[in-house]
Design brief:
Keywords: DNA-binding, Sigma factor, Transcription, Transcription regulation. This protein is mostly helical and 169 residues long. It is built from nine helices and no strands. The protein starts with a helix and ends with a helix. The mean pLDDT is 81.
Length: 169
Amino acid sequence: MHRANQGDGAAFLQFLTQVTPRLRGLIRARGRGLPPDLHEDILQEVLLAIHLKRGTWDGTGPVRFWLYAVARHKVVDAFRRRGRRVHLPLDDVAEMLAADPGPAPLAARDADRMLGMIDARSAALVRAVRLEGQSTEDAAARIGVTPGTARVVLHRAMKRLAELAERMK
């Protein structure tokens, strides 16, 4: 996460790949009482929140506590949207996040679904830079735009994806 916060896209991809299965298990455990089909939606909200708010992790403490707090808030939000009040204690963090992650069968499908909601050029840039870890310059050259244009398009695409995810709540 330190490297990701310094702009290393490949490190961020690796980080998300490693934590997604653990977060999925955490959401399933804490989201009991919610329809199981909402668990993946909550996971997507958590991953987007991690991307958008990763600068709020101060880097001094373990990242798992920060991740757990983000996930906990999204689970509570899901309960609230369904008209229920809930209190989720902050215990069992280490056990939940240290659990065997298992496979992440829907991650690629979810990314493809979200990227299908934006224009092709923007989706190609997001996939290249954010998911595959390419530099903005390399991705720009491959797509045929200047690096400055690529940064603007990428910024707007990430903003659009965040708006879409917010609307899907």
